[in-house]
Amino acid sequence: MMGYLLAPLTIALIAGVMAALIALVDMVANNYGDVDVDINEGKKTMNVKGGSSLLLTLSSEGLYLPSACGGRGSCGACKCKVNSDIGPHLPTETPYLTPEEMQDNVRLACQVKVKAPIGIEIPEDLFNVKQFDAKVLSIKDVTYDIKEVLFDLGDETVEFEAGKYVQLVIPPYDKIKGTTQRAYSMSSRPSDKNHIEVLVRLVPGGIATTYVHEQLKEGDQMALVGPFGDFRRTDSNSVMICVAGGSGMAPFKSMLYDMAEKGDTSRELWYFFGARSTRDMFYLDEMRELEQKLPNFHFVPALSEPEDGDGWDGPTGLITEVLDSYLKKDILSEGKTLEGYLCGSPGMIDACNRVMTDNGISLDNIYYDKFA
Amino acid sequence: MAPEIHPFVILFASVFTGNILLTNFLGMCSFISISKDMKSANGLGLAVTVVLTITSAANWVVLEYVLIPYNLVVYRYIVFIVVIAATVQMLEMIIDRVSPALYMSLGIFLPLITVNCAILGVALFMQIREYNFWQTIAFGFGSGLGWWLAIMALAAIQKKVSRAPVPSGLQGPGITLITIGFMALAFVGFSGMLNVQ
Question: What is the overall mean pLDDT for chain B?
Fold first, then answer.
C-alpha cells in the first residue's frame, strides 16, 4: 500500500519544497522595502511597496495608465516618461518605442519594476482617470452586429471631452483566462456625467466584442477605466472633415451632441460615414436631427455595396472615393483650412490619410486614435 | 564506468567532442531562432551555461538523495523538469536583485530556456552515465560552454550567410539547418580525439 503512495507523495514533496524555496527567494530577493514614486515633479508623490511593475504599483494607488493587454507587454499603450536612471531599455520594450521615445527615456510601465525611488512624468489628464464600477443599464442593437451599451456609473461621475475613450475590463469567461482590457470611444455626451455609452461591433473571435455581444446582460456589473486619449476637437475654427465607419461613429456622436448642446453652431463640419449596405447603416435619424440644430454640419452617409431594392438614394462607393469627390467639388475653396478627424479600422485610416494629404490637408492636422 | 574519468576530461569532451548541440541535437529550437545576431546569441549562451551548471548540480542532489534511495528513478523526467523550472524562477529573481546589469542581458532568456531540451538532456545523461557530483558539475558547465560556443559560431556564420546569394527556397531555416549540418561534421572530427560516453 505504501509503495503506491510513495511516488506521488515524493513528487508532491519535491514540488512543495521547490515552491517554498521560490516563495522564500521571492520574499528575500524581491523585497525592496518602501519606495517613493514622484509624479510630474512633485505634483503627486506616493510611498509604495517596491518589487512590482510600475503599472501595477500606480494602479494600486488609484492612478491608471492606459493598458489594453493588462500588463503582458503586448499592446505598448502604457508608455510613460521616466526621469530617474532605471537602467537601459529591456528587449521587451524596444519593439513599441520610437527612437525619439527611447532618447527621452519613455518606458513601458508594465515592464519596468519599481526597485528604487523613481520619478516619472505622465500627461496631466491621467490624474482624472478613474476605475468605475458601472452597471449595464441597457444594451440596444443598432445594427445586426453593433450594440449600443449604456452604463450607469452610480454615485461616481465622469469628466471628459468628447472624443475620449474608456477601457472595458473584460472578466475571464469560457476559455479566456485572465482579465482583458479593450478601448472603446465614448459615444455619450460629456454633459451626462452619470453615464457612459459605447458602441461595440462584433469582431469574430474578438475577446471583448464576443463577451459584450454574447455574455453581457442588462443589470450586470462591469469595470470601466478612463477617460483616455487625445482625440478631441481642436480649438481652432478650421473646417472639420470627419470620416468613420461602423462603430467609429461613437466619438463623432459624442462630439456632435456636445456641439449642439454648447451652441457651437458656427463651425463647418462634414461627416462622412461609410457602410456596406443599408443593414450596416445606423443613427440616420439622429444625424438628420443634428443637421437641423447645427446649420454648418453636413452628414454624408455612403454605401459601398448597395443592394437592389433597398431604397438608397444617397452617395455610393468606397468612403474614400466619396470623400475625395466631396473634397474637390463642395468643400475645398480659397481661404479655408481643413482638419481631418478619423475613427475606424487601421486600413480605413491609412486610406483616408492618403486622400486627405492628396487634397492638401497636412498630416499634422489629421487626428485619429488607431485601435487595432 | 564513469568514476575513473577525470572531471576535467568530461569538461573538455562536452565542449568539443561531445557537444550537446552538435552531436546530440539538443536545444535546437532556441539555437536556430536566436542565432541571428551575435549579441543575443551571446546572452542566450551565457544564460544556458549558468542554468545548465546550476540545474545539473541541483538535479544530481535530488537524484542521489531522493530518487535513488526511494527507488523512484523512473519519475526522473517529471522531477527534473520541476527542479529546472523552479531553479530558473529563483535564479531570475536573484540575478535581478544582485546584478541588474546581468539581468539586463539574461533577463528575457531565462524563462525561455526553462523549456530548452539541452537542460533536461544534460540531467538525463548525467543519470544514465552515473556521474558523481564533480563530474556532473563539469558536464553541466562544459555542455553549457559547448552550447555557447556553437551558437556564437552559428551567429557569426549567419552574419556572412546573410550577405550571400542564397536561393529563395533555402532562405531562413533551410540554409541555417544546412549550416548546422556542416558545423556538426566539423565537431564530429574532434570525436576521434576523445570519446567520453
Answer: 85
Class of domain A34-126: alpha beta
Size of interface A-B (CB pairs under 8 A): 55
Buried b / exposed e across A272-303, counting CB within 10 Å, b at 16+?
bbbbeebebbbbeeebeebeeebeebbbbbbb
Write the ipTM: 0.76
CA distances to A48, A62, A120, A222, A294 from A58, in Å: 9, 6, 11, 21, 42
DSSP-assigned letters across all residues of B78-94: HHHHHHHHHHHHHHHHH
Locate CATH 2.40.30.10 in chain A: 129-228
- Interface touch A30/B93, C-beta < 8 Å: yes
Q: What is the CATH number that goes with domain A129-228?
A: 2.40.30.10
Å between B89 CA and nearest CA of chain A: 7
* CB contact (8 A) between residue B83 and residue A18: yes
**pTM across the whole model:** 0.63
Domain ranges for chain B: 2-190
Q: How does DSSP classify residue A331?
A: I
| Whether the Cβ atoms of residue A159 and residue A179 lie closer than 8 Å to each other | no
Chain B residues close to A14, C-beta within 8 Å: 62, 66, 79, 82-83
CA distance B57 to chain A (A): 15
Residues of chain A with CATH 3.40.50.80: 239-368
Cβ(A359)–Cβ(A336) below 8 Å: no
The tens digit of pLDDT for each residue in B41-52 reads 888 888 889 889
Q: Which CATH class is domain A239-368?
A: alpha beta
